[in-house]
Amino acid sequence: MAPVNTSKCFDFKPPMGFFSRREMALKYILILIFILLTINTCSCDDDHEMEEFLKREHSLSKPYQGVGALGSSHWELMGDAMVTTDQVRLTPDMQSRQGAVWSRIPCHLKDWEMQVHFKIHGQGKKNLNGDGLAIWYTKERMQKGPVFGNMDNFTGLGVFVDTYPNEEKHIEAQKKRYTPRTQRIFPYVLAMVGNGSVSYDHERDGRPTELGGCNAMVRNLKHDSFLFIRYVRRRLTVMIDIDGQHEWRDCLDIPGVRLPLGYYFGASAVTGDLSDNHDIISLKLYQLTVLRSKKEEEEEEQAEMTIPSVDNMDLLQLGQNEAGMSGLSIFFTVLFSMLGCIFLIVIGIVVYSQWNESRRKRFY
């Protein structure tokens, strides 16, 4: 019996291109893994690219030693503001009061974060209280005025905790109604950047110049309430912690905000016919150390700012106007959009039918 040649049985020759396709697939898998690892590394780097340092000379906290005393503190009181053992009370729960506390030292930090521990409380019931408080980073300081106890036409940043709906009451007096899309829930937190010539529209609760905002039910809370303001790489972020869960909730996030160095931090409040206690428990400023490339540093040095501004402010206002469309405008917008879609569908069907008909004729 002749021996069986087993070499032919195991002499397997893969088809042409087998290993090349396998190598290509393996290469794509390795590239995908590398990309995922890179993204993960970048996200980790983003989480650790900032370090924060408490700046005591720009912070206000207990026991408020020397606050308001001439030359013995970094902070100065104005108006009806007074210091107690537990807080700096900007206004008492009394009519027609206004008060403020201002830093004496200008801030020259590029990137910073302000954490505000505050409290608003009083005997007034819902919509029978007012008017609110503001946190400032402005060129001017120690100026009384109508904007939550500060001057109008300010230069810099204002973040407002507005507790009274002036515009809503004005519309109700004219026997008109808000649309559900435009109505706000008060108290309301909003931000505004002023260049020295822009006025805050008190009757409209700052809508024309608002960068963004959110509702925040901060009155008469039994737990602590906090406001978080961060300015990094010309990006303004505001968050709130008012639910007692120690969790920040997004309020607004606006890129392209340009704030010069050397402005002053402050807080102010005002009451009118209605009132509240407006208390500041602490203002803690943190310096943020942010990693920047040489190119970014050179661009920032070349674009040194002297007047506050916001990139694409027209687009922000356009978005607010669109958000404020009446119900009738929304109805017609939806109606014409639907009619336009139906018209395009009909044209598409007609064109396709004609093309299909001519295609069939070519085969006869």
Automatic annotation (TrEMBL):
InterPro entries: ConA-like_dom_sf, Intracellular_Lectin-GPT, Lectin_leg. The chain crosses the membrane at residues 330-352. The keyword Signal applies. Pfam families: Lectin_leg-like (PF03388). GO terms for biological process: endoplasmic reticulum to Golgi vesicle-mediated transport. Residues 52-288 form the L-type lectin-like domain. Keywords: Disulfide bond, Glycoprotein, Golgi apparatus, Lectin, Membrane, Metal-binding, Signal, Transmembrane, Transmembrane helix. It is found in: Endomembrane system; Golgi apparatus membrane. The keyword Nucleus does not apply. Coiled coil: none annotated. This is Lectin, mannose-binding 2-like. It comes from Nothobranchius furzeri.
